[in-house]
Amino acid sequence: MMELYTEVVEYLRSYGLSPVTEDEMVDSALLQDVFSEETDWVSHSPLQTEPSFPTPSNPDDLLQKRLVVLKGVLISEQIYLTELETLLTPMKALKATAGTSQPVLSTEQVRTVFYQVPELRDLHKDFYTSLRSRLHPDRGLNQGLRKEEDPVMQLFQTDPQLSVGDLFLKFVNQLAVYRGFIDNYENAVKIVQKRMQSDARFRTLAESMMSSRGSDNVKTKYTFEALLYKPLDRVMKTTLVLHDLLKHTPPNHPDSVSLQEALRLSSSFLSGVNERSQCKRAVMLSRGERRQLMRDGFVVDACESGHSLRHLFLYTDLLLCVKLTNGGRQAQYRFCWYLPLVGLKLQWAAEPQPSSECQMKISKTRAKMYQLKQALQQHMKGSKGSVSRAVDRLRRKLEECELWLLTHTPSFTLDLHSTSGKSHTIRLYSLYDLEDWKEAIEKQSGKSNETVPPDLLSVTGSCIKLRMTQQPPVHCVQPSKAPLDECARVCGSLYVMVHSACGLQHQSSAYVCVEVDGFQFYDRRKQTCLSTSCLTPQWDEELLFQVDGAQQLFLVFVSQSETDTQDDILGRAVLKLDSDNMFRKWKKITCSLGQVDITLSIKYLPHHLEAPSSTPLVQEPVFRVQIGQVAKQEGVLVPHVVRSCVEEVERRGLNEEGIYRISGASSDIQTLKHAFNTNFREAVSKLRSIDVNAVSGTLKLYFRELPLPLIPSEQFQDLSDALGIADPYVRENNMLTLLQALPDVNRNSLLFLLHHLRRVAESQEQNKMSLSNLATVFGPSLLRPPVDRVDISQEVEVQVHVIYHYLQCQNLPEALLINPLDIEEPET
Q: Are 501 and 537 within 8 A, CB to CB?
């Protein structure tokens, strides 16, 4: 490979294209660690496990390496075809003997043993023929390379811009042929093994099948069973071949898009095959039991020494955690821990907010990632797709930042408790992924009764061959999400309005967790407030995401029981984000999450993203701030502090005697006030456990401390005059007209509060709070007279009677929680 690299350099120099180093072209500060004082912050990348080759200094070098990969694919296909032909050689004779008095195999057994093999041969023969004609258009199918010809020089004679992506895409679209073979594989093997033991004629045949390999036609001896395994081995390598080819294909090459799609289809096919396949992933234990790999993936292992990226393997009877190491030229796994699935207990939780120091580091890392990506894009544009050493360094540094965020950003924890007393904790950033793992583990745990200790050396050693997940969840290295793919990615502001849910079987409080994929420059996970306990929770809450490279939106519905400390995930779903079909108007969608249906609206505004702040965003205070300003910041018509306190009082305070009249502890009220001003999520959490009178006291304090009253003082005299109208119909009409004249936020917040106070009064037999009592409590806070008025007794009387009148009003409008959306047609 070094000779090839040197040859290309000399070739370029002969044309006056000197491959100078490009390190000077990149701001060296970008390649420094985010935290210069931390010398131990290094990449934990499990990707750096392949032998290192000279980094291409220009696109021609990369394309020549691509042709080397293609030639290797062609040679491999040729060998595989000869193996399939060898496997099919005895089929005709075995069919002929099936009708005799002494058959070697019955007709049904012949059909089972060779099931789908002819179709596989035809599929690969067509692919081989097409690929060979592209690589060697001047050669026929049966012409081979002369032994003395140099393969590398052959490649330099081929067009570097050769396009073969359509061939690979066509091939992977026909991979379904393999599914029938895989499903039938064990039956075929059982017949072969049984006949080898009982029939000497078949044993002789099965142990001496010969195949020609290589240009010198050297004969290779196979067993029947070994040849039957070849298709399994072949299909499992498809994704690796595509990954290697895509790695050596420049982003601006015509094949880039089609190869990415082929890789996606291949990976999807193999993921589905794994759930049904009992063959390749079968690991034999010491007593002969069969163990099968169900799924694997990268997680963060949380232990006393810190957080580390690990590869987790779920087998039919155990969980195995291993570390990927670089063992010379080949990747290896090192054992970390394992837990048997029998009796395994699982419990998940959301991690608390990190320290201010950690938040600062997270913000700095995100800002550094943004700078690295901008530099990478500019560098790639300037070098027309070349993969230089500087570009490679930028990508590696970008990868390091993503991996650091993966292990340090607040996540969800999954505690694993074994009956043996051993426990481990894994962290996953995505709640959707956590539930995916949790479901898979619990499903296998319910089936497992295996108690035989595993051979940890052999099980760990087999992980390299069995693994389905090759890369960690790092966006910058995903082939289908290339950093420079500007067309397909969703980049800009994504608005998600979560309206309501239905389908609950029992009353409960609930929230919806919304996640997006893409680069981690900005927060990729947000959630609604906790609803009141009911069968049809309603939020009407807007969640805003700044997204870069997003392709999917994940929804998780979480129910919170009154008695159970463990939140229950009732359903989840994935929505595909397609920039071509997303518009500036809101699109309303009803999405099914298992037993629950969620109604939401989505809007996408594409625009250039600003650099994320290098310091953590500080929440704006809500107390002593004008209510219109608070609502505007939150994108609502009723501030969250009002909704949260009202919903908590209705959840557990409707039967509390003296609610709103009896004040809670001043220290508790100040604690809630501080929490609402600094960390809304923390405030909502405190609401559920603090004295309910402190919750009601916090709501009263909020309205009392508004710089301007909820009902503007300018309307005090008009309201006072309206109260004096003798005709009740005219009086009510005037009062409602004055109510409608209030600013939108003031009017809807007042309506929301009035309807709540009505519901409180409905339980006045228990709480002793009538409409009159509630008007007396809230009147002076909601309506204040102009400063120049001095008759206090008259003022208080007006304040109380205005609120009392509204509480009694029969035609009181309902409150709007959000502004009406400009919605397109509903969609399910």
A: yes
| Terminal C-alpha separation, the chain | 54
List average pLDDT for each run of 10 residues in the chain, which is 828 residues long: 43 43 48 44 37 48 82 89 89 85 88 91 92 73 41 46 86 86 86 85 77 57 80 80 85 86 82 52 48 89 86 92 72 86 92 85 89 84 66 86 86 92 92 95 83 72 82 64 52 92 90 91 88 88 90 92 77 88 82 93 89 81 96 91 94 94 94 92 86 96 96 93 92 95 96 97 95 96 80 82 94 90 63
- The residue type found at 212 is S
The b-or-e profile of 744-765 (16+ CB within 10 A means b, else e) is ebbbbbbbbbbebbbebbebee
Give CA–CA dist 150/646, Å, rounded: 80
The helix (H) or strand (E) run that includes residue 510 is strand 509-516
Cβ pair 313, 465 in contact under 8 A: no
Task: Report DSSP state, residue 481.
Answer: G
Say how many C-beta atoms besides its own lie within 10 A of residue 790's C-beta: 8
Specify the amino acid at residue 236. Answer: M
How far from 719 is each of 730, 737, 758, CA to CA, in Å? 13, 10, 21
pLDDT score for 313? 95
Task: Give CA separation, 6 vs 60, 149, 150, 247, in Å.
Answer: 12, 20, 16, 21
According to DSSP, residue 825 is labeled S
Q: What angle do CA 240, 241, 245 make, to 5 degrees?
A: 115
Distance between CA atoms of residues 204 and 214, nearest Å: 25
Structural contact between residues 408 and 366, judged by C-beta atoms closer than 8 angstroms: no
Cα distances (Å, whole numbers) of residue 503 to 47, 113, 556, 650, 726: 44, 49, 15, 22, 49
Tell me 530's DSSP state: P
| DSSP code string of 286-314 | TTS-EEEEEEEEEEEEEETTEEEEEEEEE
3-state secondary structure 734-747: HHHHHHHCCCHHHH
What pLDDT is recorded for position 122?
A: 93
Burial letters for 25-47: b for 16+ Cβ neighbours within 10 Å, e otherwise?
ebeeebeebbeeeeeeeeebbbb
pTM of the model: 0.66
pLDDT of 246 reads: 86
3-state SS, residue 580: helix
Q: To 10 degrees, the CA torsion angle through 240, 241, 245, 246? A: -40
CA triplet 552, 546, 431: central angle to 5 degrees? 50
Only one residue has tokens 């996540």, namely 411
Pairing verdict, β 290-303 and 282-284: antiparallel
Question: What contacts 24+ positions apart, CB below 8 Å, involve 647-651?
Answer: 647/529, 647/530, 647/531, 647/532, 648/687, 648/688, 648/692, 648/695, 649/692, 649/695, 649/696, 649/699, 649/756, 649/760, 650/532, 650/756, 650/759, 650/760, 651/509, 651/532, 651/533
**DSSP label at residue 102:** S
Radius of gyration (C-alpha) of the chain in whole angstroms: 34
Burial class (CB in 10 A: 0-12, 13-18, 19+), 564: exposed
Tokens at residue 623, please? 């107390």
CA–CA separation, 96 vs 92, rounded Å?
6
Those residues with Cβ within 8 angstroms of residue 600's Cβ, 6 or more apart along the chain or in another chain: 496, 497, 498, 499, 555, 588, 589, 591
- Looking at residue 568, its pLDDT comes to 92
Alpha carbons 355 and 360: distance in angstroms, whole number: 9
**DSSP letters spanning 655-710:** TSTTBTTB---HHHHHHHHHHHHH-HHHHHHHHTTS-HHHHHHHHHHHHHT-SS-S
Distance (Å, whole) CA 418 – CA 332:
27
Distance CA 609, CA 438 (A): 35
Burial class (CB within 10 angstroms; exposed 0-12, middle 13-18, buried 19+) of 24: exposed
